[in-house]
Each structure stands twice: as C-alpha cells, then as structure tokens.
Amino acid sequence: MKLIILAGGSGTRLFPLSRSCYPKQFLKIAGQKSLLQQTVERFARLVKAEDILIVTNKDYIFHVQADLAEIGAEAAHIITEPVARNTAPAIALAVAYCKDKMECEANECLFVSPADHVINPVEDFQKVVEAAEAICKNSDNIVTLGVNPTKPETGYGYIHAEAEMVGEGFKVESFKEKPDLATAEQYLAQGGYYWNAGMFAFSVQTMEKALKNLASDVYDISSLGYEHALDRFEDMPNISIDYAVAEKTKNIVVVPMGTVNWNDVGSFDAIDEVLQTENGNVISGDVITTDSKNNMILGSNRLVSTIGVDNLIVVDTPDVLLISGKGKSQDVKKVVEKLKAQKRKEISENVTMYRPWGSYTILAEGDGFKVKKITVNPGAKLSLQMHYHRSEHWTVISGTGKLTLDDKVVIFKENESTYIPIAVKHRLQNPGSIPLSIIEVQNGRYLGEDDIVRFDDVYGRSID
Amino acid sequence: MKLIILAGGSGTRLFPLSRSCYPKQFLKIAGQKSLLQQTVERFARLVKAEDILIVTNKDYIFHVQADLAEIGAEAAHIITEPVARNTAPAIALAVAYCKDKMECEANECLFVSPADHVINPVEDFQKVVEAAEAICKNSDNIVTLGVNPTKPETGYGYIHAEAEMVGEGFKVESFKEKPDLATAEQYLAQGGYYWNAGMFAFSVQTMEKALKNLASDVYDISSLGYEHALDRFEDMPNISIDYAVAEKTKNIVVVPMGTVNWNDVGSFDAIDEVLQTENGNVISGDVITTDSKNNMILGSNRLVSTIGVDNLIVVDTPDVLLISGKGKSQDVKKVVEKLKAQKRKEISENVTMYRPWGSYTILAEGDGFKVKKITVNPGAKLSLQMHYHRSEHWTVISGTGKLTLDDKVVIFKENESTYIPIAVKHRLQNPGSIPLSIIEVQNGRYLGEDDIVRFDDVYGRSID
Known about the structure:
Chain A is an alpha+beta fold. Helices cover 23% and strands 33% of the residues of chain A. In chain A, strands 18-19-20-27-22-25 form a six-stranded antiparallel β-sheet, with no helix packed on it. A five-stranded mixed beta barrel of chain A has the order 6-9-7-8-10. A four-stranded mixed β-sheet of chain A has the order 12-14-16-17, with helices on one face. In chain A, helix 6 crosses helix 7 (216-222). The first copy, chain A, is globular.
C-alpha cells in the first residue's frame, strides 16, 4: 500500500494560529507534533516513509520538509502543485506519480488521507485502514471511511450505507450534503449514516478507470503521465474527488470507523473538544486563572491572567489576540473577512516567517528602522541578494556565519558584527553544524520585504 | 494658596497597566494626559506652577519631572520622600517645605490633593476648592471635601456632617470606616454622609497646631524645619493624616462637592465607569469586535479581536494580558499576590523602563543575548559604567550619539554602529537636539540588569 497525504490546504479557520503562510496542517496543536507529523505517524505501522507521497503547494514545501525531517521521515516523496486546485486533480496527479516514480503496479492499493485531522486511538484506526485495503485489493471498489456520528452535526456531509456488505464495509447508497438539524437528527436516529471524513482507498487501476469514465477532463491530463500532467496541471478543473468520482460511481464502499474518534479540527471549539480535560480549563503556555472555569486558553510568549471568566476561548499570538465565546469560534471567518477587506498583513504573515534556509522574527519596526532575529539552519545559505533602500547591521548571537560581500568572503562569529551597505551584493551562509542566529538592524527610508534583488533562488541556487 | 499633591503611591490595583515601577498616577487613562498631569491642570486657574509642591518618592522623581515638562509646569516644586511613609509625615514635611522654601506665611492656605483621581467638571470643582479656601482663611478649621454618594459604596470611608454650617461647609460629626452594605444604604437614605476623598485644606498654623496637639511624634520631627525633617523622615510613624489628625480634631469642616463627579480609579471597573460610552463597548487601541457588547478593551501593540463576548474587561500589555469579568476586577490583587509569591518581574517592571535620561525597551532575550531599543533624551547622558559579563553592540537608528569608551570619545550617527567590550568603562550621551535611538545587542553568559558598575549616579553626576 502507498499513502497519499493531501497537505496543500491554506485555510484560516484557526486564525490567528493559522495564517495563509502557515496553515493548519503544520500547527502543533493536540500534541508536540504537527497535524501533518501526526498523520504520517498514524500510518507508521502500515507504510514505510518511502511509500508515502505528500501532495502540497510550493509555498509550503519547506514546512513539509522540516516536519518530515523532525520525525525521521525524509524518505517520503513530495510533489508540489504549481497552482491550488481541488482534491480530484491532486489525487489524479498523485496516482500518476505513484505509477511513474514509485513503481506502483495496477493493482497496488493507494490510501488517501487529509493532513490536518486528529484521529485516535491509532491502533483501532489502523485496523480500519487494513479493512479498507483488503476491500480494494479484493474488489474493484473505491473505499471511503465513514465516521460513526456522535451528534446531529450539521457541519459535515454524510454517507448513507446500504445493507449489502463488501468485506467489512457496506455498499454506499448515496452521499448527502450538509443537512439541516432536523435531517441530521433523523440520520442519527435512523442509523446507517456516517460522516464523510475525506479518506479514500483504491487500486491504481480502479481510480484510473473511474476518472476515465466519470471525470474525463481530469483523466485526459493525468493520463499523460506525471511530468506532462504536472506541466498542464493548471488546465485541470477545480473539482473535488467527491463530486468528480465518489458521488457518481456505483462501485464505492464505506467502512465504518466504529469506536475510532475523529475530529477535523475545523474550529477552536473543535480543538477544545480534542483537548478537553477534567478540570474544565484547557490551558497551554504561561497562564494564571482566578475564579475561571471551562475556558480554553492557548498562550504564547506573554503571561495571560484571567479573573472570573467562564466558557471563553483565548488564543494569544505575538501579533494577534483572539477572545471568543465557546460555540462562537466558527465566526473567526468574519474576523478574517474584515482583515482581508482592510488588506492587513496579519492574515498572511506571522511575526516569525519560515524560509527554506531557516526563519526570521520581526522584533521591532518603526520610522526608518526594522530589527529582526534571523536563524539559519546548519549548512544552509540565503540567496545572493542586494537591497536598494536599506543597509543592514548584523550581530551574531550564536553560531558562526559566512558572509559573501561583493567579492570578499568573511567568517564572523558569536559577539562579532558586520555591516552590509546599500546596493552591495551579499549572501549569508551557515557553514557550521549548529544553527546560526543573528540580530539584524535595518536602516533605510523604505524597508519593505520586496526591496530585494535575488541573484539566485530561495534555496541559494543560481538563477543568473 | 499653595497646592500640595501627594504623588508617592505605588499601588498595583491597575496591574498590568500599573507596576511598582510605574504606578497609577503616571498612567494616561481617561484622557491624553496622566492622572498627575490632570491633577495639576485641575488647579491651573487657582495656583501658578511655582505655587505647587509635589511630594513623591525617589524612584518616581523623573516620571514627575517628565510629566511636568510635558504640560509646561516645570516651575512646580518637588520633594522626594527618602522612604515610603503615610500621608501624615508626607503632609508635615510638605508644610515644613512651604514655610522654609516657599515663603509661606502662617495664615497661608495649603490645599492637599491625591495625584491619581478623576474629577469633573473642573469648573465646578474649582468653586468647591475656593469655598474650602475661604473657610480655612476665615477660621482655624481644617477643611476636607466630601463627595456626595451616588450609591451605597462599601469601598470608601464616610464623613458624617452635623447641621451646623461654617461658610459653605458643615462641621464634621465623625469619620466612618468602610461600612457594610446595610450601613452604606442607611447612610445614603439618611443623608449628611459623604465619601472621604482624601482632600484637605488648612492654613499653615492650623495644621502645625493640630500636629503639635494630636500627633506629637510627627510634629517633633517636622517642627525641626524642612532639612532636618527630611534627614529624620524615616523616624516618622507610618500613619495617615486621617488617623493622626482629621478623626481626632474638633475643628474640622466638610465641604460637599455637590454635583462634581469624583472617581478614585481604584479598579478597572472604575475606569470603565469613567470611560463608559453609549454603544456599550469601551475600546482603545487596535480592536475588532464581532457580536460583542458592553466590554472594556484597552489594547496595546497588537490586534485584539473578540467574537461573541459580553461584559469583559480586557487589558493588553506587551508582556501581560488580563481578562476579567466586569465587577471582578478588584481581584487583580489576587493575581498580583500570586505573581509576588512567584517573585515574577512583571510586578515591578515593564517591558519599557523609564530612566532619568530616557527609556529602554527589551525587544528580545534568550540564551546568551538580549536586544534593547534605547532612547536618550536630547542633551541627556547615561552614567559612566562598565559590565563584567556582557559586551554590547550599538547601532544608531535615529539621532547622533556621543560615546566615551575608556579615554576615547567618538561621535556616531544614524546607520553607524559601535562595540563596547567587556569590562571597559563607557558612557552614552545624546549631544543633539532630537532623541537618540539605538538598538543594543548584548552578548554574554550573564545579562542581568545588576551587572553594572556605575562611576556616577543615574543623572550622570560623578560619584567617584
């Protein structure tokens, strides 16, 4: 079996934790590992790292690489969508890659999973995946997993199962749109209805046949093979695998997840469900509560103190504080809309921005100056670059830096500083084996990030 | 008339806005001016700046000087208590100063006011002060102002007036401790009871006589004259003017403040009362509310966003966030107690610390480094100093600096940087006429503020 993880989403339903530069799948909520890392490890017993294919977006590839490296799964394959499309093109491209680059046979089972859900216990989930794999091995059905509903949820689509069984699954009667409450309650009472969790299993040939018959506009491109399909990815329609295939095919089976807990972490209220403990307050970070019950408080780099407040969701970040009543957090989208209308950078940027070579944090900015803490990973280098409107003063606070300035190369160490004049070509490298951290003080009348002339790409490869 | 403003308080009832390094009287709440500045200007029509005497604490003197300079009242006199005592010693010392340094005659009227209350309308208040002045001119009574109670408040002491009038005031029958609710309601229903606002008027001779007869342990020292009284200030008892004199003397009159609004700004709920507006949300700073009513949100340097929350008090500062239910904010003291027990620096320090020469803001600190933005006022200089455990890299972001390093003196300008090695004597000055701002990057294994050897005082005066 090969595992396809869809990790290209850019949602901001968890703003201010998630930003378009740093979406949900990379957040370390519900544990010390990101949701993507948790997803990879969820399948550890079933697939080796080299049998995993992660589909993401060019803006996120170094987040994916960093997450994989942290858990020793660098061997996983990564493909980057040149533009954002929906799940059908992503899956079709992934199938083509599996055939061309991962020597998949026609009858090989592929399992598709989102990268940003919380599922437990893992052992029980793995049994469900094995049941799904068995079905797609022994039949020409597409298999989807169905979550046994625990409440009349109106926020998910439902899958209605027939009585007829295939392996441990049931033939799908139909897919249902998000219902109103009355309908959801009826589904729950009637039984045989499951939440659609966006997980699928199928053999290469089954999906190819389904795409050919049901989504020819996708198939016409994906069947050209991976390289060509990638070149023409933009021409694919923006359509989900549900609409394109699952809801149309007769050959689809749902395997109930039974007692497995599933949460799509689609709002802070959903996170609260995942993290909920006995005492009623869910707390992370530096928090002191007084006479406060049933709050979720996700702290950041400052002390948070509450007095006599109940049922609040507090999410603190260095540049944005969110305070929401419980049950109201889906309205984060209203906040995001307001900020988009105001073209505020908080929507897309974090105070700390990640780059292929490391990261930087803006410590302060004001009239004519900006101060950053820059961290360069061991062995990494920034692009050869130049600025027209700012000069930079660098002081090393840890590690050793190698600076290329015009035609000179200097090594500078902890407690040493250097100066980059305006309009001089320069490159910063970390030649050492520990992270290089410097404090950068920028001086200039214009300090926008776009005042940069790059002489090679963000990986430091020449683009001259 | 001379005005004595008591500005030595160090309360933290408004934590995290107020810290022991920066108490309430210097906060710019309820307006663009600090409570101290508002207090000075409240008396502007009645006394000239040179007829004002501000009693404060050595830790706050440069806050007082800065506040006075901002409103053009530099001519006001300032005396600094060598140690914190209560109001009786402070007033006795002030009386001695008025006699010795401000040529007060025995019959000159002195008016005593706290520095941290909100009172309006000013015009009506000034009429009340004039009525009090008239009484202390024409009689040997001590005069106190009484606030007409608007609710059965249990948080204040009360003054019970007799029917007998003196000028526009009434003889005081007795002072009452903070009452329970039933008693407070009875006071309100019965009438003739006023809140004690801590404001007094008296002639020099009246107060001296009262101290001699009623508080000889205070008088014995204050009667030595200002210089000697200052030297022996520590020997004065820690006692309030209420206990020492007002509650004991027969010669005391209360002048009702009538329609004048008075607020002691003793809690965030009290601030909410002062700032209350029509729409129900009291907001300052960068705040976006959604479906939120009747909140007070005091923002800081980040976006605050609320969704579906009511009746909250939110106070955001760079290092501490407070979220309290309305009516609960007096429990800030519980938070402060917890932090004191944990010996946390947030109680006493701000991220921005004020100094006689300007201020500094800590931008970042971590293992082996600290980054500060330092601003030096025009013409000001730091003490000649040396550090045993840290070196410092300075980059000028605005203005011009003069650096004394060992026996060398260098001028460094915007976009220039310099280096201060460990254990080398140095002094930073701003020789220019605009503020000097530098970014300081400290390197070292120990970066405590106490790693400083000063060769002169905080004003830059030699202490060799």
